[in-house]
Amino acid sequence: MRQGQAVTNRADETILDLNNQKNKKLRKDKKSKGNKHYLSLGLLVFMVLFVIQFATVLVALAGLVVLVQTGVITVEWIENLNTGRMILLLAAVDTFIGFVVVITATTIPLRPVSNLILQMNRLASGDFQARLKFGRLLTSHPAFAELTDSFNKMAEELGNTEMLRNDFINNFSHEFKTPIVSVAGFAKVLKRGGLTPEQQAEYLNIIEAESLRLSYMATNVLNLTRIENQSILTNVSRFNLSEQIRSCILLLEHKWAPKELEWKLDFGELEIWGNEELLKQVWINLIDNAVKFSAHGDIVEIRLAQKEQEIRVSVINSGPEIPAEAREKIFNKFYQADESHSSEGNGVGLAIVKRVAQLHGGRALARSQGGITEFTVELPCKE
What we know:
Layout: H1 2-69, H2 75-80, H3 83-107, H4 111-124, H5 136-139, H6 142-192, H7 197-228, E1 236-240, H8 241-251, H9 253-256, E2 262-266, E3 271-275, H10 276-292, E4 299-307, E5 310-318, H11 324-327, H12 349-359, E6 363-369, E7 372-380
Parallel strand pairs: 2-4
Antiparallel strand pairs: 1-3, 4-5, 5-7, 6-7
Helix pairs in contact: 1-3, 6-7, 7-12, 8-10, 10-12
């Protein structure tokens, strides 16, 4: 027992070291790339300042030549100037040109900075439609292109987060309100008394079912939070995957038995290395999802196959087709393709499926066409 635990600990430490090395290399490459961009940006700023200084000298000389040619001043007048007057004249010319250059520098070259500040203020005020856009010349520079891309991605992610937050509040308030109202209503009826034993039993069963529903939703949210904060797969062991799926079907018998669903299990005995507890949540969520959207007397099929270094688990059911635009978002947390909320759920189950698959180095896929919906989880066959 201790030896097995020691092996598991060493495996976890090895995975952690590999992840740290990978992240360190990515940070180093990104930093090197960023340094090159900022170095080129520094050279660009230096060239701009050099051009401004050179232009100032040219303007001063050109102005002096024009004054001489127009007769405003003569060469003899310049020669008769003493050193003090010459210094004052040059200082006046330099001040005037410098003033013009400063005004130009603050209105033209600093315009991108003003634009950046403006868009950042829009984001800070809650306007997530803000987008950063520079001119064609600046956008062609890698540093400004990277800044534009990073800012716009940040704004888009903030907007998506705000949308998910609003959806979560709406969905969760709806999902929690329904069972709470049921529990409170039937408890009030029971409190009044005057019911037959059959009515009392019926109302108690409803209260129990709605309480379990609340518990299930809260547990799913807590599980998702825990899994999202987990970056390394732990407690890895070898177990019988086929037996685990069969036990999950039996565990949900109280949901599919009233619908008289038929099961088609197309697999033999397969074993896999993974976190047994996390993968159990995957199959429960997928099977529960298939049962939920299947009609009375339908067939639910589960396929389990091993191809080279990969195990594929597919849960197939007939029912409402998932629109193409919804299939791209269906694994996002708190997202529900059924916007009417006519079916139970809060958009957490499939997010757990996706995250657990990622922790195992696999992925989750969804396909829906012709009234047939198939969810597939691909997991690597490695120890």
